[in-house]
Amino acid sequence: MLSHKLDLNASCIPAVSQVYRPVSADLQSPAEGPARSAGAWAYRYVKERLLDGRYPGGVLLSENELARELGISRTPVRQAFVQLETEELLDLYPRRGALVRPVSMSEADDVLEARLLIETHCVRRVATQGPALAAVLLDAIADQERTLADGGAGFTVADREFHHAIVAANRNAILVRQYDGLRDRQQRITATLVARDPARVAQFIAEHREIAGAIERRDADQAVILVDAHLRRAYEVAQLGRGGRAGDPLRRHQAPPHAPYAATEAARR
Questions:
Q1: What digits encode the pLDDT tens for the residues 181-217?
Q2: Could you tell me the pTM of the whole model?
Q3: Which residues touch 198 (CB under 8 Å, ≥6 apart)?
Q4: pLDDT at 22 over 50
């Protein structure tokens, strides 16, 4: 968890370390958590594994097996499956189970575009905070480095913490809400990358250090370039891993670092 906090009192956004908690932060069994229903417990248990990649796309989940694993009846598991289907994480097949829905290429395209718009805009504005914000980012990087000992387990949460800190530091509550709307998809894409190529975790961490260094120097132009390149490289790894051609889907995102919104809108016309 981040130990440094930025003063965000100028907005309704809480301190960076309080903005996002992984599901596991308060995940308890029904017996351990008073007033928690078995359905809520099953929902949180399954969703955490969907987001961190332990249940990868294409896997068929069994109601019976999960019910036995959790020590509950099939009914709350079925309720959890229905809720997760409405969130477009599962596809239900009667009497067979629930299929984990893979992240599609078009969905990855949309997430990339949204992240480019929000993150390059925010990092340009917050780079002036220099060492104060860099200290927060270095805390997140330290969390990421600790995941290396477990082969990258837990990296997806620490990765999002890093990027979320940049967006939250901009003190725009509307942008933060929009960015939080990407949380599940963003985490699933990162989990897919890590599962496909665990060695990439060390590279991602190195790129995060470069971004934090540019912010510490208050070099907004370089910070924008680094964030842009970092997001695109991760996207290309994801697309190549599923047989796509790196570069082609990015043409509509070729926004110059100094004007991401205007250039993207022009490209759409």
A1: 998 999 999 888 888 888 889 999 999 999 999 999 9
A2: 0.73
A3: 151, 152
A4: no
What is the maximum alpha-carbon separation in the chain?
Answer: 58
Alpha-carbon distance of 215 to 33, in angstroms, equals: 41
Whole-angstrom distance, CA of residue 172 vs CA of residue 177: 9
Q: Are 171 and 10 in contact (CB under 8 A)?
A: yes
Alpha-carbon span 91 to 103, nearest angstrom: 13
Q: Is the sign of the CA dihedral 28, 33, 38, 39 positive or negative?
A: negative
pLDDT of 120-153, one tens digit each? 999 999 999 999 999 999 999 999 999 888 877 7
Question: What is the phi/psi pair of residue 13, to 5°?
Answer: -80, 130
**Predicted confidence (pLDDT) at residue 173 exceeds the cutoff of 90:** yes
Angle at 66 between CA 61 and CA 69, to 5 degrees: 145
Pick from 114, 134, 138, 127: which is nearest to 221 by CA?
127
Cα angle for residues 125, 130, 135 (degrees, 5° grid): 115
